[in-house]
Design goal:
394 residues; 2 domains; 4-stranded antiparallel sheet; Aminopeptidase; 6-stranded mixed sheet; Alpha-Beta Plaits; single chain; alpha+beta
Length: 394
C-alpha cells in the first residue's frame, strides 16, 4: 500500500478517541500506582488491536509497555518512544482529565506532553497493521514510565539490553526535528549556622544570610561564566534557584537554610563540573565564618545519564527523518529544546535518537494544556513515513 493510501485511511474520530482515553486516566507521581492504570489500558488496547505486548516491570508494579512488529531481518530497526506519565494537574485546573475539543484543539492534562504523541504512535501502528504493510527491519513502540521524574523507564529499557538502530521520541516539537537539548543537574545545598535569640543576632550564625550571600555570588561569579558556555540551538548553560527554605521562628536566628538548584549544562561541561562549581561557591561563603557549614547533594538518580543531547546535522538519523518528512510534503526544520528528555538516554546508550511530536513545549505543563488536532493527524503521517523510510516497506 502506498503512503498516500494509508494517510487517506486516517479517521480523525478514531485518533481522538485513543488520545482522549489516555487523557482520562491520571498518570502522575501523586496518585496511587502512578502509571499502573494507564500502562494496563495501553496493554489491553494494543492486544485488542492484535499485537503481542511485552510489559517490563521497572519498579513497584510500574511497567514499560513494548510492542514489536517484526521485519524480515534485512532492514534497520526503529523504536518510537513515548512516556506514559504526566506532571500533576495545576491547582487552578478544572476537570484536567475531561478531554474536550474546542476550536481545533484537544484539551486535557497530557494532551501535549505527551499523550497526544503516544496516541498517535498507537494509531500509526494500528493503521500499518490494518493495511498489511510489511517491513524489512523491526519496528517497536516503547511506552515508558517516569520520564517526568528522572527517566527511570527508558533507563530500564536500555539497561535491560534493548537496542535498535534508530529512535524517535515523541516529545512536543511542533512537528519539527529536535536534535539538541541541555543536560540537567538538580542540587540541594544546605547551610547550617548557629541558633540564638533574635534580639541578639550577633551571638549566632544566620544560615539564611549565608544562603543569601551564596545566591549573590552565583549571580556575580557563576552566571557570567555560564553565559559563555554555548551549545548549538539551545544557547547558554543556566542555573535557577527554584526552592528555598530556612528558619523556624521570626525571633530565632536561623540555624539552617536549604536551596534547590536547577543547573542546565551543555556540551563541554560535565555533571561533576556543575557540582564542583557550586561546592566552591558554598565553601567560599563558609570560609568567612568558621561556625558555618555547608552540604551539597546531587538530587539526580545515581543511575543514568542526565547530560545534553546533541545530534550533528549530518548524522544519518537526521537525514532519514528529514527524508521521510519531505515525502509527506513537510519541509524539515531542525531545532533545539530547553527541557531534558529520554532521547539523551537513548543516544548515550548508542541508539541515535531525535525528537519529533505534536504540540508545543509552550503548552506543556500549563493549566490549559492542549494540542492541535491537525498536528495529531500530521504526526500520524510523520510516524508512518519515518517507519517506512527506516524499516523499509514492502
Amino acid at each position: 500500500m502506498k503512503l498516500q493510501q494509508l494517510f487517506e485511511s486516517i479517521e480523525e474520530d478514531e485518533l481522538l478517541e485513543i488520545v482522549s482515553d489516555l487523557i482520562r486516566i491520571p498518570s502522575h507521581l501523586n496518585i496511587d500506582g502512578k502509571e499502573q492504570r494507564i500502562a494496563a489500558h495501553v496493554e489491553k488496547l494494543l492486544e485488542k488491536m492484535g499485537f503481542t505486548v511485552d510489559t517490563q516491570e521497572v519498579e513497584d508494579g510500574r511497567c514499560n509497555v513494548v510492542v514489536k512488529i517484526e521485519g524480515d531481518g534485512n532492514g534497520r530497526s526503529l523504536v518510537l518512544n513515548g512516556h506514559l506519565d504526566t506532571v500533576p494537574p495545576g491547582t487552578g485546573m478544572i476537570d484536567p482529565y475531561l478531554s474536550r475539543v474546542l476550536d481545533g484543539r484537544l484539551y486535557g492534562r497530557g494532551a501535549c506532553d505527551m499523550k497526544g504523541a503516544v496516541g498517535s504512535m498507537i494509531y500509526s501502528l494500528y493503521l500499518l497493521r490494518q493495511s498489511g504493510v510489511s517491513f524489512s527491519g523491526d519496528l517497536f513502540l516503547a511506552f515508558v514510565i517516569g520520564e517526568e521524574t528522572g527517566g527511570a523507564g527508558t533507563r530500564h529499557l536500555v539497561d535491560s539490553g534493548f537496542g535498535t538502530d534508530f529512535a524517535v521520541v515523541g516529545e512536543p516539537t511542533e512537528l519539527r526535528i529536535c536534535t539538541s537539548h541541555k543536560g540537567v543537574c538538580n542540587l540541594l545545598v544546605t547551610f547550617r549556622g548557629r541558633a540564638c535569640h533574635g534580639s541578639v543576632p550577633e551571638q549566632g550564625t544566620n544560615a539564611i544570610i549565608a544562603a543569601s550571600d551564596f545566591i549573590q555570588r552565583i549571580k556575580k561569579e557563576l552566571l557570567p561564566r555560564l553565559a559563555e558556555r554555548i551549545q548549538e540551538r539551545v544557547g547558554a548553560a543556566t542555573i535557577n534557584v527554584g526552592v528555598i527554605g530556612g528558619g523556624t521562628k521570626v525571633n530565632i536566628v536561623a540555624d539552617s537554610c536549604a536551596l534547590e538548584l536547577d543547573r542546565r549544562w551543555v556540551e563541554g561541561e560535565s555533571m561533576q563540573t556543575a557540582v564542583s562549581e557550586i561546592e566552591d561557591i558554598a565553601e567560599a561563603v563558609c570560609e568567612e565564618d568558621p561556625s558555618l557549614r555547608y552540604e551539597v547533594q546531587l538530587m539526580n538518580s545515581q543511575n543514568g545519564y542526565y547530560g545534553p543531547l546533541h545530534v550533528p546535522d549530518g548524522h544519518e538519523v537526521v537525514g532519514l527523518v528529514s527524508a521521510a518528512l519531505g515525502k509527506i510534503g513537510k519541509r524539515p526544520e531542525i531545532v533545539g529544546m530547553q527541557g531534558w528528555t529520554d532521547a539523551a538516554t537513548l543516544y548515550h546508550a548508542g541508539i541515535p535518537a531525535v525528537l519529533f511530536g505534536p504540540g508545543s513545549l509552550a503548552q506543556a505543563h500549563t493549566g490549559d494544556e492542549w494540542v492541535e488536532v491537525r498536528q495529531l493527524i500530521e504526526s500520524v503521517k510523520g510516524y508512518i513515513a519515518i517507519a517506512a523510510e527506516i524499516c523499509g516497506g514492502g
